[in-house]
Amino acid sequence: MKVLLPLLTLYLASGPADCDDVTGYTGGRVLINCRYDHMRYMNHTKYFCKLSRSQCTNKILSETQTTNDPERRVFFANETVPGLFSVLIKNVSRQDGGTYRCGVEDTTTKPTDVTLQVKEGEEIPICILVTFSDSLGLI
Fold it and tell me: pLDDT tens digit string along 109-127?
């Protein structure tokens, strides 16, 4: 007889991971993970940008890796795992605070907005993710 139990998995991540509100610290780095439907959009261009008056500025595209960042502090990592791409911001400054958007270049998809709050200090930001699986089969 199978006993079905809910499976609770905790993920600890240095920096943000799929959080709507993220805290970064000056001089540190922040990792922002963006999810999308892998099967449907795996061949589409992914993007990441900072919002200003609801418009994307300094857009980074997965295909070109282009950015207006002369110091190369922002890095795009496409497909770290299926359905996930990541953006790393190094040497975080107060000016990096604000709302960012990530998504897939397809007008039918809804992008994800993430707010980055920057604080003074040396602490490592932690985001705890809780994932529930439907069940775990045990004999």
Answer: 899 999 999 999 765 545 5
Which residues, including other chains, have CB under 8 Å from residue 53's CB and lie 6 or more apart?
Answer: none
Predicted TM-score of the model (pTM): 0.70
Cβ burial of 119 (10 Å; 0-12, 13-18, 19+) is middle
Characterize the bridge pairing of strands 21-25 and 112-119. Answer: parallel
d(CA 63, CA 136): 39
Closest CA to 31 of 83, 90, 107: 90
Question: For residues 124 and 9, what is the distance between their CA atoms, to the nearest angstrom?
Answer: 21
Q: According to the 3-state scheme, what is the secondary structure of 54-113?
A: CEEEEEEECCCCCCCCCCCCEEEEEEEECCEEEEEECCCCHHHCEEEEEEECCCCCCCEE
- Do 7 and 105 contact (CB within 8 A), yes or no? no
List the one residue out of 105, 119, 99, 98 whose CA is nearest residue 46: 105
